[in-house]
Amino acid sequence: MALRVRKVAEQEELNTLLRGGITGGRKLLSGIFGLDGVTLVFSSPAATVTFATTPSSSQVALSAKEILDQINAVGALSGYAHTDQAGKLVIEDPAGATAVVLGNTGTANAALGFSDGGATGVVFGGPGSGAPEVIALSPDAQGSGTFILLTDE
Question: Which residues of the chain carry a pLDDT beneath 50?
Answer without folding.
Answer: none
